[in-house]
Amino acid sequence: MAETWIYERSADNSARFVLGTAGENPLVCVGVNPSTAAPGDPDLTVSKVMGFASRTGFDSWVMLNLYPQRSTDPKGMHRAHDPELQAENERRIAEFVDGRPLTVLAAWGALIETRPYLPRMLAGIATVTEKSGSTWVSIGDPLKSGHPRHPSRAGYEWPLQAFDVANYLRMVRS
């Protein structure tokens, strides 16, 4: 049976909100910003997320981002966030979550430091997932900086383990 893709983006493809496959038990990954990945054409990050999902008992995967602007380099993101883009991202994420208690993979690494507004974007997404009773995980232990590992830099042998997103937000916002 062919996979059913989920692909939500802006009309001009300058922003991607949701990319993944449909299933009952998805691994929901939150990265910094989308790059070039599209249905049937994963980039390195999406390929690794797919691998972690299949190796850890999930039947599907979904890629979300702190900020939905497409850029192959996070340094290419807007210097100041676009409030309308942020609101659309949070709305699409809330629609996807739809009150379901999901497993959410924190997967942005130190890239969250790329733009000062990114911790605020995370706080909005964390509020949506908190309301649904979702569980946050990370790949292995956090980096020395306290950030969760980016999937493209992680080995499949590292376990998914509990990640305290509320405590993390206190750290990055202080």
Task: Walk me through this protein's architecture.
The chain has 174 residues and is α/β, with parallel strands linked by helices. Helix content is 29%, strand content 20%. It has helices spanning 44-55, 83-97, 118-132, 165-173, and strands at 5-9, 16-21, 26-31, 60-65, 103-106, 135-139, 160-162. Helix 2 runs parallel beside helix 3 and helix 3 runs antiparallel to helix 4. It is globular, with a radius of gyration of 15 Å. The mean pLDDT is 95. It holds the Pfam family DUF1643.
Structure summary:
The chain is α/β, with parallel strands linked by helices and about 170 residues long. The protein has helices spanning about 45-55, 85-95, 120-130, 165-174; strands at about 5-10, 15-20, 25-30, 60-65, 105, 135-140, 160. This is DUF1643 domain-containing protein.
